[in-house]
Backbone:
């Protein structure tokens, strides 16, 4: 019954920038700050896949067109979320024409400009947010706000 | 929350069913004492899963919303975890947004659900204050008795739930029916969402067709699914996602081939009749492709014209089921239907053109719908079509003829009683109806109007909130306030006096137009606010209850925690009143009246379940709810897959029924189905409706949404749901919004000749120009405030969807804009 991604842009299981692997080996300790991307490389509406807090936890960084609540960067427009839908854990994709993160399995949609709020769908919570910080010319992941799908604790 | 506690291996386990919508998804409940916790090793947690690793997609995940901590009456505290049941055939391990939050609806003294009613309350003019059960029941029973003795049974009015699921079920329904019908004997009864005691589908019953005929499996087997006036992605979620979507995707082709050997099969098609381009339309297209989905965006009130026009095309092309009509229907009704509903005395092209003009649906789409419903498959094999309908049709222009037109189309094409077919409501709440017969006739009395006219000396509201949901809701609330005031004054003036004096004072207030108001509920609702006596009820999980879902699947929803404070089950509340009334009449040596309240000595939930069971024979003659021979023990054994009613006893063994009418018999004296001919192919708008329509700019469609169940009685308290729509929304087309300088997130006011209501603008092309859509029954904006007094004279069912109003911008709501997403919701395709 799972529809996989027909007409959905964005990669399904990205394995880019999974620099958190080292941090995750230290069980129960919070993951270290992880560098995700150069500020200069970020383009509006072009999502950057990464993993955090470990390589099994796909996430998406999105630079929105304008400042959004909780956004970082020079114009407060950069946000990142766990890519795992809070319904059944399918990877959401960013749809630039909708400005939404949409799940290909049961079509839950989440608004990156509203703290990951579920617009419509069957999840039980907003998409967990990856806490970001700009250090110098790069964006770093610092932590997770919300429990990631499939886990009883974010750092397994 | 970044961590959830895990249930240990020895956690107590219960199988239960969601309290919310008709689909009735199965869930597993785990309960374990505070201070203990399971571990991630598979041997250390009740799931038996290795939680040291993240769970895969479609796996079992204990989300924070699935967990809470409850406090029982002995002070003990327990973790509760509620996760969807992967072994339940209904939902296949999936939760909806509503079911996912079941744990967060449970009473907890340190959580938002602390708002629950915990003790009986009495308003003696200084606000509602706690009172003992004994005092509450004594006062209430004496007042009820005084009213019956002086004015007769019909002076006791009531508006009560009649549903299954949370706050209902066979147990509570039986007690309500016995108390008000066998006991009091009032005809001034009404059902939770409407002003009278009537079926929403009298026409289906008159045709001999059950309200819920099919199995959910049939949605995987159908060639075509017709959905009229419903939005199943949002409001029958897992029936749609786990059964309809796989069919559209072609994922049930193997099942079709295995079930129908030699029959041509392909991926399913879906026809959706809805004025809005809903998330259901969008999702169906995403799942099945635009060429397998037909969206007929009709104009309001034109369902009859549309369905009859489709039927006319079917007959003209000779696609009707001649054998079924001849063998299974009363043929004289078929001939009458052809003449009056399908206008066969008029030219087909002319008939179709008129229907197209009335409905706004192009004639080609009407023809296409007829093809998808009834054109034979390769080799002349009959197409299997599953016909579904719900409130868009039921709350429509003419309730009786609306439902008749749909049922007639199903009979015309022989689509009932076979795999892959059915003529069924999609349903709102669950079912679980078992009551002695309502003493009134048809059309039933309009209880709202009786209250306004001062004919009700007692008005008892149970498990519903008419101040938010009824028609002309503002004036209904005004009537409650006005009629309640003199009684409140009588109670104030006699506070502390002997009970006889108090009741006499209340009766004097009634002579002057007063009404004594009782409210029985789980929360202090907008309606309960007006009550003199408030009676706290138990909810789902706090008592054992039984219900059926949309495919008549009967299951046990067990008690796994205590009700808050002194709250007790609805049946137990009514049993207390019945016993008190019996004692009061017995004390007057009036056995005739005392004996109306016999046999309320139920000790357990199952006592009531078994008592009600004597309504059923188990010989094949029972209605769709029949559960002859079923016990709690049997239901515990069957778990979340339960047994499908009506149950027949075969050599003493209960045997369920997958679909209704499979034996070719229908619920009429002849056993044959009846076509219900309408007097005209389309009745036209009535007086008050026509006037409103001519005067105001927008048609105000209204209904439910994905996130919010009914009046948000739970969801208004739970941040995840309440924060999604702090103010109920009204969808408005971008062109209309522009012309009124309205932007998404603005506060707007709707106004017509009935009343006013506020809402948050949600600019969306889901609605057509000139149409609006808002939520019904919301605490901060009830669409009912705009609904006119018009009801179908045949059934006393309101035209809730028939509202026209003007809209104006009030101003911006910056906080809503900051936190509430106003992105379009129909975004799957």
Residues:
């Amino acid at each position: 019954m799972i529809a996989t991604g027909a007409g959905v842009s964005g990669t399904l299981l990205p394995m880019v920038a999974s620099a958190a692997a080292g941090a995750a080996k230290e069980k129960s300790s919070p993951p270290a700050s992880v560098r995700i991307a150069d500020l200069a490389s970020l383009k509006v509406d072009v999502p950057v896949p990464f993993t955090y807090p470990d390589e099994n936890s796909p996430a998406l960084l999105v630079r929105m067109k304008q400042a959004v609540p909780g956004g970082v960067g020079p114009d407060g427009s950069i946000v990142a979320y766990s890519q795992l839908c809070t319904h059944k854990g399918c990877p959401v994709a960013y749809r630039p024409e909708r400005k939404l993160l949409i799940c290909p399995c049961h079509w839950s949609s989440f608004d990156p400009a509203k703290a990951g709020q579920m617009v419509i769908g069957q999840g039980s919570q907003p998409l967990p947010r990856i806490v970001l910080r700009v250090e110098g010319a790069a964006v770093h992941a610092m932590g997770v706000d919300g429990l990631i799908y499939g886990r009883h604790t974010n750092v397994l | 929350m970044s961590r959830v506690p895990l249930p240990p291996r020895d956690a107590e386990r219960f199988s239960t069913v969601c309290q919310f919508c008709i689909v009735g998804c199965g869930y597993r409940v785990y309960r374990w004492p505070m201070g203990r916790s399971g571990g991630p090793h598979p041997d250390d947690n009740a799931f038996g899963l290795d939680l040291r690793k993240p769970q895969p997609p479609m796996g079992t995940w204990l989300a924070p919303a699935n967990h809470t901590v409850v406090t029982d009456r002995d002070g003990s505290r327990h973790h509760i975890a509620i996760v969807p049941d992967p072994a339940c055939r209904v939902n296949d391990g999936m939760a909806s947004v509503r079911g996912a939050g079941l744990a967060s609806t449970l009473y907890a003294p340190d959580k938002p659900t602390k708002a629950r009613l915990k003790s009986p309350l009495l308003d003696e003019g200084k606000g509602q204050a706690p009172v003992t059960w004994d005092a509450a029941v004594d006062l209430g029973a004496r007042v009820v008795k005084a009213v019956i003795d002086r004015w007769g049974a019909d002076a006791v009015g009531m508006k009560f739930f009649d549903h299954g699921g949370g706050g209902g079920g066979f147990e509570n329904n039986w007690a309500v029916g016995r108390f008000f019908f066998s006991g009091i004997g009032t005809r001034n009864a009404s059902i939770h969402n409407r002003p009278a005691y009537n079926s929403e589908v009298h026409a289906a019953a008159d045709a001999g067709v059950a309200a819920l005929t099919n199995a959910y499996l049939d949605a995987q087997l159908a060639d075509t699914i017709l959905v009229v006036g419903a939005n199943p992605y949002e409001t029958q979620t897992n029936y749609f996602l786990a059964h309809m979507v796989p069919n559209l995707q072609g994922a049930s082709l193997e099942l079709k081939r295995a079930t129908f050997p030699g029959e041509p099969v392909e991926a399913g098609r879906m026809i959706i009749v809805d004025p809005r381009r809903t998330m259901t339309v969008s999702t169906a297209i995403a799942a099945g492709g635009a060429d397998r989905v037909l969206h007929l965006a009709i104009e309001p009130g034109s369902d009859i014209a549309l369905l009859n026009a489709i039927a006319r095309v079917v007959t003209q092309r000779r696609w009707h089921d001649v054998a079924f009509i001849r063998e299974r229907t009363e043929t004289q009704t078929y001939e009458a239907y052809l003449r009056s509903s399908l206008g066969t005395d008029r030219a087909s092209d002319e008939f179709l053109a008129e229907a197209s003009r009335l409905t706004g649906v192009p004639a080609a789409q009407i023809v296409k719908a007829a093809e998808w419903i009834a054109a034979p498959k390769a080799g002349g094999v009959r197409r299997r079509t599953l016909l579904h309908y719900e409130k868009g049709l039921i709350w429509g222009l003419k309730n009786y003829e609306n439902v008749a037109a749909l049922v007639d189309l199903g009979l015309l094409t022989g689509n009932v009683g076979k795999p892959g077919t059915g003529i069924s409501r999609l349903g709102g709440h669950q079912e679980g109806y078992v009551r002695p017969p309502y003493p009134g006739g048809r059309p039933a009395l309009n209880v709202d109007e009786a209250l306004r006219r001062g004919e009700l000396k007692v008005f008892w509201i149970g498990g519903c909130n008419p101040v938010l949901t009824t028609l002309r809701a503002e004036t209904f609330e005004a009537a409650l306030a006005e009629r309640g005031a003199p009684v409140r004054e009588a109670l104030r003036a006699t506070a502390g006096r002997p009970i006889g004096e108090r009741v006499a004072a209340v009766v004097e207030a009634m002579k002057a137009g007063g009404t004594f108001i009782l409210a029985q509920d789980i929360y202090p609702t907008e309606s309960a606010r007006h009550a003199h006596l408030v009676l706290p009820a138990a909810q789902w999980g706090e008592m054992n209850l039984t219900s059926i879902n949309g495919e008549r699947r009967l299951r046990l929803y067990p008690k796994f925690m205590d009700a808050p404070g002194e709250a007790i089950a609805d049946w137990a509340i009514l049993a207390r009143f019945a016993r008190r009334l019996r004692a009061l009449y017995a004390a007057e040596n009036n056995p005739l009246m005392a004996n109306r309240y016999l046999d309320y000595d139920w000790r357990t939930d199952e006592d009531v379940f078994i008592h009600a069971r004597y309504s059923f024979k188990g010989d094949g003659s029972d209605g769709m709810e029949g559960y002859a021979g079923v016990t709690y023990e049997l239901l515990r054994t069957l778990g979340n897959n339960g047994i499908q009613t009506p149950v027949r006893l075969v050599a003493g063994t209960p045997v369920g029924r997958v679909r209704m009418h499979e034996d070719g018999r229908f619920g009429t004296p002849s056993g044959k189905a009846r076509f219900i001919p309408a007097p005209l192919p389309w009745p036209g708008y009535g007086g008050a409706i026509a006037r409103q329509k001519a005067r105001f700019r927008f048609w105000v469609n209204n209904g439910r949404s994905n996130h919010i169940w009914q009046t948000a009685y739970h969801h208004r308290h739970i941040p995840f749901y309440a924060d999604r729509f702090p103010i109920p929304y009204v969808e408005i087309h971008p062109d209309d919004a522009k012309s009124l300088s309205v932007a998404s997130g603005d506060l707007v006011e709707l106004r017509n000749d009935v009343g006013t209501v506020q809402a948050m603008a949600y600019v969306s092309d889901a609605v057509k120009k000139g149409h609006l859509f808002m939520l019904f029954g919301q605490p901060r904006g009830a669409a009912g405030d705009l609904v006119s007094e018009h009801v179908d004279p045949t059934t006393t069912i309101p035209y809730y969807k028939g509202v026209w109003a003007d809209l104006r911008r009030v101003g911006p709501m910056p906080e809503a804009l900051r936190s509430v997403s106003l992105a379009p919701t129909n975004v799957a395709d």
User: Anything to note?
Assistant: Chain B is about 30% helix and 15% strand.
